[in-house]
Amino acid sequence: MSQHHHLSHRGCVRLVPIFNHLTEEQMDEIMQVVQSTTYEKGELIYRAGETSEVLTIVNKGNVRIYRLSDSGKEQLVRILGPGDFTGELALFNETVHEHYAEAMVNTSVCQISRASLQGLLEKYPAIAMKLLQTLSSRIDESEQQATRFSTESTDQRLASYLVDLMDPEGKSDVVVLPMSQKNLASYLGTTPETVSRKLKELEEMNLIKRLSTKKFKILDEDNLLFLD
Amino acid sequence: MSQHHHLSHRGCVRLVPIFNHLTEEQMDEIMQVVQSTTYEKGELIYRAGETSEVLTIVNKGNVRIYRLSDSGKEQLVRILGPGDFTGELALFNETVHEHYAEAMVNTSVCQISRASLQGLLEKYPAIAMKLLQTLSSRIDESEQQATRFSTESTDQRLASYLVDLMDPEGKSDVVVLPMSQKNLASYLGTTPETVSRKLKELEEMNLIKRLSTKKFKILDEDNLLFLD
DNA sequence: TATGAGACTTGATCAGCATCAATTTCTATA
DNA sequence: TATAGAAATTGATGCTGATCAAGTCTCATA
Hints:
The structure is a homodimer of 228-residue chains. The first copy, chain A, is an alpha+beta fold and 228 residues long. The first copy, chain A, folds into 2 domains: 11-150, Jelly Rolls (Sandwich), CATH 2.60.120; 153-225, Arc Repressor Mutant, subunit A. Chain A is built from 9 helices and 11 strands. Chain A has a 4-stranded antiparallel sheet. The first copy, chain A, has a 4-stranded antiparallel sheet with strand order 2-7-4-5. Chain A has a 3-stranded antiparallel sheet with strand order 9-11-10. In chain A, strand 4 and strand 5 (74-80) form a beta hairpin. In chain A, helix 4 (114-123) packs across helix 5. The longest helix of chain A has 27 residues, at 125-151. Mean pLDDT of chain A is 91; it is low at 1-7. The interface between A and B is large, with 47 and 47 residues. Chain A binds a DNA duplex (30 and 30 nucleotides) through residues 153-155, 180-182, 190-198, 200, 213.
């Protein structure tokens, strides 16, 4: 693991929703206690089974969070971008990680220790509220994902995913897959072969149009959500 | 909705992990701000789409939390018992509920408003830590559930579920299904017919033995987790 | 710009499980 | 304890999507 301590934690603190509502002075105070670290593409930030004393916040780059099922199959849980954090389970519950966290590209993160965070929470209850908000939303997303797995067909999951990718303002009907079809398949709980076939089907039904390998135009949002 | 305000909130506050680490005086203080309410069997405590200002803590009884998928199918998310709480998404994020919460039997709950809770969090940061712990664990459970849906067969999910039911001390190898096969099917993302058939298969493989309708003896824990 | 490795596509096959339908068993309550 | 309504079982059938295999395409790098 390559660690470089430098002075640009500023981004981290300023970036994250859990801190960026604070005043300048307060953010400066937080910067005192965060540690900056970088990881090379492919490096693991943590592994399932390890303990840890820190919350990890992505500053620059992307991190792939995945799980192994009891039977050893890999499932992509989510992809972190700048401002997202991970490691809360091991941190708050003082247990081991259940995930693997892997840098997808060269990535810089900030880390804050349990003790420091606890101090901040006591001093600034607003931070706790932000954390509670974020975690509640994550529960919601994860439950929604579970519900989709258990009640919807692969077509529908893929179609919902494409619609979710559209920018919420609806300004653009062009979406770009943020990951390979292999990772997408893992995220959607299917295989790369099936993703490829289903994308083709959706195109044949004139619901989407492929613009390039990873770029698609959404032609008919309503019917995408109404498959079957 | 039948609401009875009475004086026995005591149980609620004493019961929940998020409060029961406090001193007697502190718990008394909290009792001042919680409201007790009862729901009859079958009553909805809240619906998806509603807003709400309260966190709901189960005092006595059971509450079924379920979701509807985009296409309208019902999925059981979890079942609350005494000490469990719900409503955090709508409360913390000031959005609408994404769930339905239904009393499975006559149930009494305590509710605490956003404003009161916020006050408590500021005064007692330890409560925030407990909430963060609980929510982190829930994320973990939900992600694990999603992973099981996406990577494991119905047999395996059912078998894992039975093993999870065993008391963690491993003192007893007899488990009792806490819900109907219909609800279990919904929880596991399958159909009642399939649950029935798979239970029969597991019994024919001598991995479990049915003692009564809802009671099973686990004969071979290791192989239950090693199906295939 | 050549080349190899990984990403994606396409085809053929087949197992798992949903669905529909018909009983049988359980259980709450009169 | 009788009985209706719900829950669970069992059977028959068909579809979805996994798997294996054999390509083709893309792109980073020498």
